[in-house]
Amino acid sequence: MTSTPAEIRAAFLLWMGALAAGCLEVALHDVEPSGLAMRLTIYAIVVAVALRMRAGRNWARLALAIGLGVFGTLSLVIEPITWLLEGHALPDLDLTGVLTATSRTLHVLCVWIAVPLMFTPRANAYFRRRRGERGRDRSHAVAAASTD
User: Fold this and answer.
1) Domain of life here (predicted)?
2) Which residues have CB under 8 Å from 19's CB, separation 6+?
């Protein structure tokens, strides 16, 4: 069994930090029950995918990098950029706005640090080894089943 490199453990914790920041933002705003249910479902899926990434599943690493690293980041920054383009300024923020901006900033920072950590040389080697181990495990299982 291959041990999980520090970069992958750190990336996993950063994904959990991004989720915590998202939960904080939800708590700061009145969210309709259907919207809350959708967010909680997405958060549960992210936890499941992050756990698979930590276990060495390359598909999960790619899903996090593309799904959240690209599209998730866009969803977090479009609203504040639009707000600023409408002529607002940071001094216009009330306490909830400041806390939301802080939460989003932490969220984006967690994502932007987690994504490159998942693609360091040690992380890449980990995902290759895990793929090889799964292939050997399947080969042994097929061989054992054919001898029964």
Assistant:
1) Bacteria
2) 43, 46, 47
